[in-house]
């Protein structure tokens, strides 16, 4: 193994593995990763593949997880260790269990980003923010992402993807577009964040807005739930990506993975991001409210 390319800004871990594979011409991607493990000999107990790739990038596993995996988004909201830097949390077990949890199936890219990268670097690369669950829009260019088979992470660069390889994405109506764009912006901002946010802080900024819309914020239904509102305004084909069983629920029936966001019960990061996107008219206002509630005054940058 002789060529270790520099890892690039927001480069996704699987895409970085692919660039190492393409530059070193091993027969298969498994041969490539096994050669990295043999060369760097990462300790047992974590994800040896992950740690071997971090060594290839000349980063420790925490820096690599922070800047090139989806883990910061997964752990952006937590019931413990709120306010703590991601990089200060013991990561090997987290990496081993969770490093692909919020990844979409398939490989996603923005054609405008790929074109810019081609002009900047002489090649394009796979960006991690485009791989986040439910993120179908590029927050920088405001355009919809394109997707192809996940094998492209290892075998090709985004600019090498032909039209025949692209997967057709379902049309989105005009009512849904602003909500889905806000969701993308919020998820990307949380991915870039370096501090964990307490779940109660996230719940406190969405619950009053849900009440103002007449949505139920109690365990016993008093009106329509947030999940009912989501089904009314968003394509079920998109909601299915985040919540596979949501379409099976009955009207005015609680769906805990989403409704817990406004019921003072814990939920996952992407559920809070969707609640914010549904209830706020602006992602910037939503994020500012979140950071202020958490006792921080961090500037909000959506690019």
Rg, please? 20 Å
- Count of helical regions: 15
Beta fraction: under 5%
| Derived structural class | mainly alpha
User: Distance between the terminal alpha carbons, to the nearest Å?
Assistant: 36 Å
- Total strands: the figure is 4
| Low-confidence spans | none
Which SSEs are present, and which pair or pack?
Layout: H1 13-24, H2 29-40, H3 48-56, H4 61-68, H5 71-74, E1 77-78, H6 92-98, E2 107-109, H7 111-121, E3 146-148, H8 152-155, H9 176-192, E4 197-198, H10 199-212, H11 226-233, H12 236-242, H13 256-259, H14 269-279, H15 283-293
Parallel strand pairs: 1-4
Antiparallel strand pairs: 2-3
Helix pairs in contact: 2-3, 3-4, 9-14, 9-15, 10-14, 10-15
Describe the structure.
- This protein is mostly helical.
- The chain has 3 domains: 13-98, no CATH class; 107-165, no CATH class; 176-293, no CATH class.
- 46% of the residues lie in helices and 3% in strands.
- The protein has helices at residues 13-24, 29-40, 48-56, 61-68, 71-74, 92-98, 111-121, 152-155, 176-192, 199-212, 226-233, 236-242, 256-259, 269-279, 283-293, and strands at 77-78, 107-109, 146-148, 197-198.
- The strands form 2 sheets. It has a two-stranded parallel ribbon with strand order 1-4.
- Helix 3 crosses helix 4 and helix 10 crosses helix 15 (283-293).
- The chain starts with 12 loop residues before the first helix and ends in a 10-residue tail after the last helix.
- The mean pLDDT is 87.
